[in-house]
Amino acid sequence: MLNSSKSIGNSLTVSSRTKAVRFCLSDGRNWIFSLSTKDEQGNRVCYEGEMFTIIEPRQEIEEIFQRDVQKVVELLYHWVSTAAC
Hints:
Elements: H1 6-16, E1 20-26, E2 30-38, E3 44-48, E4 52-53, H2 62-83
Antiparallel strand pairs: 1-2, 2-3, 2-4
């Protein structure tokens, strides 16, 4: 299992000197998407989505596996394209 991303988010926010940092943690099967930001008072706040797990690939459930992978790719694309704006 992946550990909480709060301390990583805070470190990224400090080191990048930006107001908000989007990132994800993954072990290749489990994915956590997070956002670390600063509120109006300058306090760091970390928002962490629920863990998303890609099922183990097996021939009888190939369609579900492909859907899970597609969802992760779409989330990564959304985060990268939003961050580039």
